[in-house]
Design brief:
104 residues; mainly alpha; single chain
Length: 104
Amino acid sequence: MALIYLVFILAIFYWQLKRVRTGRCGKVKAVLVYYGYGLMPALLYVLVFMGVVGIEQMFETAIISDLYARALPFVLLGSIVAAVVTGLLFALVVALIKPKPSPE
């Protein structure tokens, strides 16, 4: 799961960097879109987890283990830290590059 998340973050990094370099997107917009895409899997993870817990409470049956439930804060913290750190790196890289002028 973590490897898929990191590949997703790196793919968005490359995609947004390419958009800035070609001049199709401004620097600020690219950073904001990157943060949006970077934090989306963490939020989706929380929503799915809360949905499973809600179903578990409704039907009074164990769907997820206790150990998995205890690991949620650490997984969530790791994904948010990865998104924020790579977002800061992306903002630094975007600030240092010069976009190509858009053809008029």
